[in-house]
Write a structure and sequence with these properties.
It comes from Acrocarpospora macrocephala. With about 375 residues, this protein is α+β, with helices and mostly antiparallel strands. About 25% of the residues lie in helices and about 30% in strands. The chain is elongated, with a radius of gyration of 21 Å.
């Protein structure tokens, strides 16, 4: 087992307090995410043989010992998941992720939107109250909400929704002429009796995607509740602090609420207007999803816990102190924000203590 040093991403939408408080320090600016894994854009570090090495390098040196034969057979010599702490203080971009087939096809044809051939399913598990937009409302309901604003400029969007064509409505919205966007947002704030529209307009005053709360479903998670976002589900995190686990990929198509480039046609091609997120209830402390890349275990204070071996696991403590012992009877103690990588060769783990720990692993 190896204690991990994990990079923190300072994206502008991050919190100045959430991750800093967990790590017991003050933040110099926004801190959005702590990454735990082997992603090349932010790999975890560990000490082996007296030197600091990246987790990808450790895996490459002995993939069978680190990952296990079953993981290599299914995913190749790579860690298939990425674990994060995510601290949202202002809305992230509206976005959607491709399926495995879409990612592989896009990567093979050299499309700049696809930097790798892997899917990026996600699950967020709330540590504090957590708010997100995910999936479309029924088209008729969205049409009524848009029409009720009484803005003639939005009539084409309301008409498209009324006919059931959600993607046509989204195409009109995202293609709004740049010169007319500030006036549209001003009119939306003036006429929409909707707190989320106002909140988004304050954060993104020139972005027509502030209309999204009228088109999409609003999800509010209590601590311990989880939401799974598969391929094709349009979504946007609004605020809150949580543990996020995902397929280890960079494939994101953005739809607004971002200064980053948007490829409207490719976004619409992979967005599934019928796809919805799924609430995931833990079964015996395990959050199971349809994705083979990951599952998430949560251990709370109380009895000892057993974690099966033969696959790579990353564990992070979010509260209290927890002891972890591997099959060789090596023991580590984790405090808040501390994390450990347990290789497949570490065998089964035994956990005890008065803390809360999340454990990421492939679902095999």
């Amino acid at each position: 087992m190896d204690l991990l040093t994990n990079p923190i991403k300072d994206y502008a939408w991050g919190s100045r307090t959430a991750i800093a408080a967990l790590t017991g320090r003050s933040a110099a600016g926004p801190e959005a995410e702590m990454w735990l894994g082997a992603h090349p854009s932010g790999p975890s570090l560990l000490s082996r043989d007296g030197s600091q090495r990246s987790l990808p390098d450790v895996i490459a040196a002995n993939p069978v010992a680190e990952l296990g034969a079953a993981v290599i057979e299914r995913f190749g010599e790579r860690l298939p998941y990425l674990l994060k702490l995510i601290a949202v203080d202002r809305a992230l971009s509206m976005q959607v992720h491709p399926s495995l087939e879409q990612a592989a096809e896009g990567f093979c044809r050299g499309d700049h939107n696809y930097s790798d051939p892997w899917p990026k399913p996600e699950m967020i598990c709330a540590l504090t109250p957590f708010s997100a937009l995910a999936g479309f409302r029924p088209p008729g309901e969205a049409a009524e909400l848009v029409a009720a604003l009484g803005l003639p400029a939005l009539t084409p969007i309301a008409d498209a929704l009324a006919s059931g064509d959600v993607l046509a409505a989204l195409r009109i919205l995202l293609g709004w002429p740049a010169a007319d966007r500030p006036a549209l947002v001003h009119d939306l704030v003036r006429t929409a009796d909707h707190d989320l529209v106002t909140q988004l307009a304050e954060q993104y005053p020139n972005d027509p995607a502030v209309l999204a709360p009228l088109l999409m479903r609003h999800h509010q998670l209590a601590p311990g509740e989880a939401l799974y976002l598969g391929a094709g589900v349009l979504h946007c995190y609004l605020d809150g602090f949580g543990v996020e686990i995902m397929g280890s990929s960079d494939n994101v198509l953005r739809a607004g609420l971002t200064p980053k480039p948007i490829d409207i046609e490719e976004l619409l091609r992979i967005t599934d207007p019928a796809a919805q997120p799924a609430a995931i209830e833990p079964v015996a402390d395990v959050y199971l999803t349809p994705s083979p890349e990951f599952q998430l275990r949560r251990f709370t204070p109380g009895d000892a816990y057993h974690v099966p071996g033969d696959k790579p696991r990353i564990l992070i403590c979010v509260d209290g102190v927890v002891s972890i012992r591997n099959a060789a009877q090596e023991e580590l103690k984790l405090h808040p924000a501390e994390a450990v990588f347990a290789a497949a060769s570490d065998g089964a783990l035994e956990l005890s203590g008065n803390g809360t720990v999340f454990c990421a692993e492939p679902r095999l």
